[in-house]
Amino acid sequence: MNKTLHMLLGLTCALTPVAAAIAQETTTNEEKAVERIQVTGSNIRGVDLEGTQPLQIISAEDIAQSGANSVFELLQNLGQTRGGSGTFSTTESGSTSNSTPAGQAAASLRGLGPSSTLTLINGRRVAPSSFAAGTENFVDVNSIPLAAIESIEVLATGASAIYGADAVAGVINYILKKDYQGAELNVSFEDSVQSSDESKKSVNIVWGGAVAGGNLTLFADLYDKNAFEASDRPISAEPLLVNSYSYLPKLPYPNIYYFSSRDGNELPNPDCPYPTTVTEFGEDICAYYSNGDSLLDSELESQSVGAIYSRDIGDVQWNTDFFFSRSESVAISTPAPINDEFDGEGPFAPYSALDIYSEADLQAWQGVSSPYDIIWDDPFTTQAGQDLYGFRYDARFQDPRTIENETQSFRLVSSLAGEIGDWQWETAVTYSESESEQEAISGIYNRYKYNAAVHGELCADGSIADYDGDSDTLNCGSAGLLGAFNPFIINDANNDAILAVAQERPTRNGKSSVFGIDARFNGELMEFGDDYIRAAFGVEYRQEDLEDIPSANSRANFDNEYLVDVFGFGSSLARADRTQYGAFAELYIPLHETVDMQLAGRYDHYDDFGSTFNPKVGISWRPTDQLIIRGSFASSFRAPSLTQAGIELRTTTSTFDCAANAQVSDLYCSGDGREVTENTLELGSRSLRAEESDSVSIGFAWSPADDTTITADYWSFEHKNIVDTNMTGVLAEAVTDDSLRHCGLVPTGSTGISYGDEVCIDTYADAIRGDDGNKYLVNAQGTVITDVNGDYLPGYSDDDLHYVQVLGPDGLLVDQTNDLFGLLDRYVLLAEPRDPELPFNRDHVIPLENTGTQDVSGLDVKIAHDMALWDGVLSLDLDWTHYLSFDRNKPGSDEIEELIGTYRYPENIANLSMVWGNDDYYGGVTLRYVDGYEDDIEGMRGREIDELVAMGVLPDADSSRNVSSWTTVDARFGIILKNATIKLNIDNLFDRDPPVVYGSSRGFDTINHNAYGTTYRISYTHFF
Fold first, then answer.
1. How far are the Cα atoms of 224, 327, 842 from residue 652, in angstroms, in the given order?
2. CB 136, CB 113: distance < 8 Å
3. 3-class secondary structure per residue, 125-181
4. Strand intervals (E) in 478-626
5. What does the pLDDT read at residue 807?
6. Mean pLDDT across the stretch 581-602?
7. Which of 220, 543, 880, 997 is 20 to 30 A (C-alpha) from 515?
């Protein structure tokens, strides 16, 4: 155990005698006072806050009837957690090491992102996952045991004035069971009605009773979920579009890379096991589609245990809650692409790799008698240093990347509470920890070993042979030299054994912890009119630590040219710690017998980025006993996450938006408005400022009858200084800032864009641009891209030089070549290049910065009505969220994009439920509605858009497409016996398929929809 945990345990053990000492000094009441309730959104106890703030409570009965197996399943249908892509589960997790680990999930309010939602348990913080979602740290809600939860309170408005950092969009507070009496056992089974097995099994046990003068509640939770494969549903089993292909087929069916083809076109594998695909260049290729290797949900096993103990010692109450959870999951994603040793073009293979094909095979394939007739004979240098001739190929490995994940979470909170006069006090110590481990168990290969294996340079012990150029020999010492791996051979045990030597098992280990001490006081401050001003004051000290350490073979740094040793396993190295202290004050002022005011303010100081003060003002007016009109203003903040502050280098991808900036579009996208993704390195910063938000909420709660409640609230958030990378902006800045332009690798300590040799080689500076309208290799000034005044022209890769003729001073043809370096000064391009954009090298270094704003607003409407019917009660409930706006600036541009109604941003989300029940039975249905929105056409490739036009889905390439709205019906039934309940839940009763989304690689929106179809859940609970 670490020192912090030792200290916490010591403090906890010391609490009992401390409580006893305090109790002796406190007046003993003959009769125990009624407990004063505290609700989320205020630290003042005993004040009637019902209806004065937009607080949604998920009760124990709601949880029991929901059919949820996990906290994420319980929250995913709330209107407040929908919209955008903030709330996620393993549906959106990949297997590479910088992705969110499978088995984890986060809740996001108002679509502002999981790090902008504060997660509390009994009003106190929880350690975030050590593995961030991108760079946003979040609390894994699946680590909170459902069996221990009594209720959940959701306050979807800014709350930093009460709780401090991260409550930008609001707070979700999980209230644990307390003073439970008796025992209960719950078992459940869930599955779809399809033939595939996506079953979920759970067992929950709760026991509570008197122990040692107090009450002890024990709980245990077991959960087992099978994987859900894309191939198990028609909508995701096959690609929606032929043109949604990859040029990289699985081994052993590589294509011949277009760079190596004599006609400049990709050549298909001779043994392609399925019909070839015609590309936008008119070439036939053996294509790859990811559907067969995609999981819609990962398998997960989790176990949780915990205890809650409370005891009165005199007039002092001692409370301690503890839980421990452990989860194991397996993530699977597409096989890793294979590149050369330097992560550039496709890897080289010797011509001998094609010796497996006879002349008849070649004639049937391409009508040639020798590969030399169609493939360039190119020189290359191997990993060991041999100078050979061969060709490049395009491929990915056969086996998907498979990553095992294990996460353990631990939390211990111990508090003392009592009264001094008319004031209540409480103090607590908190320690929370999350620890995760990842290990790649399949599909990850060492880039150097693999490329050496293809050329027969790999030793039996996994080392690379020494090459002696004088004797032209390879030496492995006593290990022995393996044969050459042939990427074109099918089902050969010896060949597969050579590849297995190149496999590696990189790991990633992370740990996050929070230690805190707080003290709170609340009571009646002073008389005011016929009532009292009530107040709460408090102080808090908190220490946070995080580390996220990948194994050495998956780390990138300048010394290894930013190349991790393995293919397809990016790393995120982050280490940071932070100390914070804060103080808050809150007043509840009865301005009039019908008007109350809440004033709150909190000061927080962080040892890394500084201080912040956040106020809140709330007003509630009760013109009648049935109506409350309420409104509030609050400012909130989110401290840069420890991951964002502590990233040393994170291998990832960054997407830039060609539509956001005209210069970026012209230089990198041929004038198109598409989105482009590049391999990048993310760099953290200790100089990041806090994100800030101003929130407004105005609404009313009206009860026209005893059994009817109607609430409506307008809410808005102005979110500023958002921390993110902005590759579009860096590309735009590089137009005028030469310090951001780098030939080759970006040096350590620098940031910017890495460009290819085509615009960096000095000999190109001899070329000129003519007046004949032809395109040339460099600009008219003869400068290269890193010069201070170097301007931009489209660059051309080496394969494009096959189309170039060299003209002498008299204009006569001198030579036609694929090597122009050092030749004459007049180059005429005879054909358009394959990719006429400014060429990148790789591994641009993009810093995290405070960039961008987003403004979000909407309406929440809730109607609840109960009526007596058939010896029972019929409850009608409507929960509707309407987004008025979700506007943010495009990266690298001041242009504001309006997201509502676009991909993944539905305008309306609603649930309508009708449930009848009495003491013996209940049953009901819930209609769930998600509005339609525009498909993500802008993010698609041009060839995919052309296919949609040809299919008649789009009238033309500039058109948009609407995704249909989606309405499903869930049903629930229950039988309540004397000592047991039996429940049946059926989701998507009428087996509605999710709407087709062409802009999603999976064919549907995995955030707002799901492809399970009809599922059923049977559960049995026995009370002892």
1. 31, 26, 12
2. yes
3. ECCCCCCCECCECCCCHHHCCHHHEEEEEEECCCCHHHHCCCCCCEEEEEEECCCCC
4. 507-528, 531-550, 572-592, 595-606, 610-624
5. 40
6. 94
7. 220
**Which one, of 156, 200, 196, 149, lies nearest residue 176 by Cα?**
149
User: How far is residue 1020's CA from residue 1015's CA, in Å, rounded to a whole number?
Assistant: 17
Distance CA 846, CA 509 (A): 24
Q: How far apart are CA 753 and CA 731, in angstroms?
A: 7
Count of domains forming the chain: 2
Q: How far apart are CA 512 and CA 132, in angstroms?
A: 10
Q: Is 322 exposed, middle or buried (0-12, 13-18, 19+ CB in 10 A)?
A: middle
3-state secondary structure of 230: helix
Judge whether 373 lies within some domain.
Answer: yes
Q: CA separation (Å) from 696 to 40, 459, 618, 630?
A: 18, 67, 10, 11
- The values of phi and psi at residue 148, to 5°, are -90, -5
Bridge partners of 142, per DSSP, are none
Which of 196-210, 264-278, 806-820, 828-842 is predicted with the least confidence, judged by mean pLDDT? 806-820
823 occurs within a structural domain:
yes
Contact (CB, 8 A) for 428 and 317: no
For residue 471, give every residue at least 6 positions away whose Cβ sits within 8 Å of its Cβ, in sequence order, or none.
Answer: none
Residue with tokens 């590149």: 339
Between strands 908-917 and 531-550, the pairing is unpaired
Among candidate residues 771, 785, 762, the one with its CA nearest the CA of residue 828: 771
CA distance 375 to 341: 21
Domain membership of residue 842 (yes or no) is yes
Looking at residues 477-494, what average pLDDT do you find?
94
CB 713 within 8 A of CB 859: yes
Q: In this structure, are residues 293 and 333 in contact, taking their beta carbons and an 8 Å threshold?
A: yes
Pairing of strands 675-683, 844-847: parallel
Q: What b/e sequence results for 237-273 when a residue is b if at least 16 CB atoms lie within 10 Å of its CB, and e otherwise?
A: eebbbebbbebbbbbbbbbbbbbbbeebbbbbbbebe
The whole-angstrom separation of Cα 847 and Cα 683 is 5
DSSP letter at 196 equals S
- 122-179 per-position pLDDT tens digit: 999 999 988 887 778 888 888 888 888 999 999 989 999 999 999 999 999 999 988 8
- Distance, CA of 182 to chain centre: 40
Q: Return the half-sphere exposure (C-beta side, CA atoms, 13 A cut-off) of residue 112.
A: 37
What is the number of residues in the chain? Answer: 1024
pTM for this model (two decimals): 0.85
Domain end residue (candidates: 486, 506, 526) = 506
> Nearest 5°: phi and psi at 972?
-145, 140
Amino acid letter, 556: A
Quote the crossing angle between the two packed helices 493-501 and 447-454, to the nearest 10°: 140
Q: What one-letter code names the amino acid at 793?
A: L
Residue 136 Cα distances to 62, 112, 392, 619, 1001, angstroms: 30, 11, 39, 33, 24
pLDDT tens-digit series, residues 840-867? 877 889 888 888 889 999 999 999 999 9
The CA–CA distances, whole Å, from 41 to 35, 618, 638, 708 equal 18, 11, 17, 24
Structural domain range at position 255: 245-288+335-400+443-506
- Write out the two tokens for 138: 């979040």
Is pLDDT at 180 greater than 50 in this prediction? yes
167 lies in some domain: no
Where a domain ends, among 815, 847, 879?
847
Per-residue pLDDT, averaged over 338-344, amounts to 86
Tokens of 360: 């008849």
Query: Are the C-beta atoms of 588 and 543 separated by less than 8 Å?
Result: no
